[in-house]
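Lecture 7 notes: from sequence to structure.
We start with the chain below.
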Amino acid sequence: MARQTGNGYAQAPADFSWFDGADAGDLLIQARRAQEAKERKQRRIIGFVAFILVVIFIAVIALVSYRSIVKRNAAQDISEDQAYRALQNVKVKPQYANDKGGILFSKVGYGKKAANAPTLEIYTDPMCPGCAVLHQQMDATLRTLLDSGQINLEIHPVTFLDNMSTDHYSSRADNGLAYIASHDPDPDHLLDFITNIHSDSFQPEEAANYKPVNNRRLQEQAEAAGVPADIASKAFGGEYDPWLSAAAQYTLRRPELKDVAGQFKGKLTTPVVVINGKMLDISGISDIGLTYKVAILQSIGLANADVGIVGKQPAIGSTGNPTFPKTQPSV
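Predicted structure tokens for the same chain:
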């Protein structure tokens, strides 16, 4: 019963008889332990769920990696004939692409050959330093030879060094090459674009020294080459990636493109120069100190003084064997 005081009513002493002999301190301890047990259970549940999510994540990563490895190994295991058929089956190709992954052009346009002129095939990767040396030494001469009808040129864009950049630079630059060839009718613009991206002032370094090159910078090089802006702006969207990949797989399996001597004997290294179907021994000409220009002019049978003179055709013509410089096996 409440006890009345001068200021109202005071509560009667609390009755703890219903605690069955436990004092307030014991109850607080029991309550705290119950709460801790509840929290431990919650942590176990959260931990278990997190563990399951990690296991699932690892399983997904492992599955993706496994499929990637299987796909890569399958690509590596295919024969030259299988790679050739795969290249033919690519749905989206550059307009003037041939069956071997090249783009032919001459003074009479894309996909056509000038009469009585040898055909030079150049296999080039936009990140390859050796390819840059070739283009820096030869592109001005190639342009003159093309304009005078003294050669036909077949460019094979390859992407072997894609993994030497962080953003698939080789594939993006080569997509631009393929797009320009398909949409800009002037082959001079294509050759100028190739020259621009292999210049010392533009070509990026490889691997750890690579600094990202965005599509806008590639577009600027295309426009500087004379490619109309509306074409250059669409040239680097990646639509030819499957074709580039299939062409690279086929190119790697062609024995006639592999080094004939030196430390890379039996392997394909870029650049590769082929004249009327025969490969120039680039390592060999380097060993004897010849420039690309001297070696190529000698190989096609054309004097330097006759470069650019209409009617002065190379001695080997369109079907003759090149007169390659005599070289010693590279060591």
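Points to note: Residues 1-22, 57-74 have pLDDT under 50 and may be disordered. The CA atoms of residues 17 and 23 lie 10 Å apart.
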